[in-house]
Amino acid sequence: MEEFNGVRCRGDAVESFVTSLIVGAGASEESAAAVARALTDASMRAVDTHGVRLTPHYLRGLTAGRIKKTPTVQVERLSPSVVHVDADDGLGHLASYRGIEAGIAAARENGIAAVAIGRSTHHGATGCYTLTAARQGFAALGMTNADAIVAPHDGVKAFFGTNPISFAVPACGGQQPLLLDMATSSIPLNRVLLRRDTGTPLPPEVAIDGVGEMTTDPFAAAALVPLGGANYGYKGAGLAVMVDMLCSAFTGMVHGARLPSFAGDNVTWPARLGHFFVIFDTNAFQPQQAFANRVVEFLTDLRSQPARPGEKVMAPGDPEWAALAERTANGLPIDAATWGSLGEYAKTYGCAMPDVIATTTV
Amino acid sequence: MEEFNGVRCRGDAVESFVTSLIVGAGASEESAAAVARALTDASMRAVDTHGVRLTPHYLRGLTAGRIKKTPTVQVERLSPSVVHVDADDGLGHLASYRGIEAGIAAARENGIAAVAIGRSTHHGATGCYTLTAARQGFAALGMTNADAIVAPHDGVKAFFGTNPISFAVPACGGQQPLLLDMATSSIPLNRVLLRRDTGTPLPPEVAIDGVGEMTTDPFAAAALVPLGGANYGYKGAGLAVMVDMLCSAFTGMVHGARLPSFAGDNVTWPARLGHFFVIFDTNAFQPQQAFANRVVEFLTDLRSQPARPGEKVMAPGDPEWAALAERTANGLPIDAATWGSLGEYAKTYGCAMPDVIATTTV
User: Fold this and answer.
1) Topology of A71-185+227-285 in CATH?
2) Contact B294 A254 (CB under 8 A)
3) How many helices (H) and strands (E) would you count in chain A?
4) B201 in contact with A, Cβ within 8 Å
5) Among A235, A282, A314, beta carbon nearest to B227
6) What is the pLDDT of residues B20-71, one digit of tens each?
7) pLDDT band, very low/low/confident/very high, at A179 (cuts 50, 70, 90)
8) Whole-model pTM above 0.95?
9) Domain-by-domain residue ranges, chain A?
10) Rounded to the nearest 5 degrees, what angle is found at the Cα of B144, between the Cα atoms of B140 and B146?
11) For chain A, how far is it from start to end, CA to CA, in angstroms?
């Protein structure tokens, strides 16, 4: 989480607003609804890097031609437990939500299902989709590849995307799901850009310079380092390999290093990303109550572990559920720069801005 | 890889010898063959921590009663794509190999299959089983939980096992598979024990003392730290959570922190571990040749990446394939202490030792 100044609006008002902007750029209603749903969901859970602030990014992609405005998403069951989704170069959010629904249907029949999504574009936070499965009582594993910004272990230039892994398991009795959503690099590229803006050094062992030496200088950083740093980065790189394989060879796409860079202003060619999900019907593995008891036992035991002074042992997702409660009560914060940019787009497309219910520092 | 002095024997001779020792301890032929196969496979790939040196560990478990000598392993298809294996407290190696075969059969029919193994014991290196799937042309994801030796992020005492993740993808044209097999902690417990023996400090941010502070003193180390260390250990811990969930709630077992400690001399109660595999029939996702081309493209691109001076960018498994070639040519090295211990067991059970073809320093 980064700190920022801005405004707060009701989450549902933001979701409607983002939908209207995306439709304003010419996208189909279903495309717009999917991206607005994912961005609002991420922002409400304080995953601001993948939240509403990405709206202008998608608007640019739609108008420049990288993202198809009215894609024909094709969902095909290739075998009883394998779903392929052709995203038709449309917004990755639509293809991913469709894939999750088809994966749930296949998992309900067979116990487990894979969803391989090809010809897609950036889909925001992968956790939006595993969470959608968990909200329906299904566990899910999710991944996406991306263009190269993370170096291999002992390498000197970028080869992997940040290649996130997400995993969600439904809890019971009204408890929020267990939700992991992590890049396989230590930090995201946005952290480097932010540190350039603020002129502060990077943490150690998260980035290398142009000759492969670790650097804490955000201006010298030429590539990110896989999770594990100088000594154990081969593990983060190994996970990045797994994500890249499942999202390319299994989806029919090329691997991350062969994708064109998403940086820069040229957003005219399609991204051709792959996403990969595995959906688990937990009832196919263990009796419903026994499974629920195990999950609750685990979460209870983990959260009650003794912690370092001033800290608290948390389960994956716990910080997000705290943020969700706070933002549901007080509104979804939007940083000032994003708010300004969205205001410009609102003028262009003739969309009404959502009501501001507070100014805020997050 | 650790350095050691010892002897070298032919791999197949070692496998026969280990089989005879395990049978000598009263285990069934199929149990003995499975453990010998896994330990020899790991040793030949230089995964010595999980290789032949573990033989005495299993012999003790068999004679003390923790491991059932003649288990009735039950393999059940719970739904079209879900296999449950009840290991009946026998050697985890037997249950895991059986699970992989059943998982391959289910994946062949449905494209993907899950294998949840319960009531099991330590199964050696998880990579032995994903590799077995890859040798038959199937991709595989594998995990196992274990008793608590890794602290949660910001915690002060052990809660997770080293909870490894393995992933294998078959290559083509006679190339070795892509094979990842990594603990979700930075180092294994064995590294701490070794550093106590040698009196050398630990690397930074891999272990905590009894109050949760990072320590490099191997004698002060009370628990291991998840991959990612002080700043990013929540990611390694998140992966450990995923492994623990899939190996407990999905298999019917309790999570790692509720397992009795495997350390110490009391090996009379069953371990009750869980293992979890996902098997992928790659032909169900993409045409065979297209898939093979993607894998080769990826491996070729990755291995040709520019590296830091004196280093080489490698794919997961590459160091193991180099070791396999060397050990196939020169014999499987067994450290002197293990060799001595195996000699004692050979006398006890009346087993012939394998021929020594060289003395060695690895």
Assistant:
1) Ribosomal Protein S8; Chain: A, domain 1 (3.30.1370)
2) yes
3) 10, 12
4) no
5) A235
6) 999 999 999 999 999 999 999 999 999 998 999 999 999 999 999 999 999 9
7) very high
8) yes
9) 1-64+330-362, 71-185+227-285
10) 170
11) 9
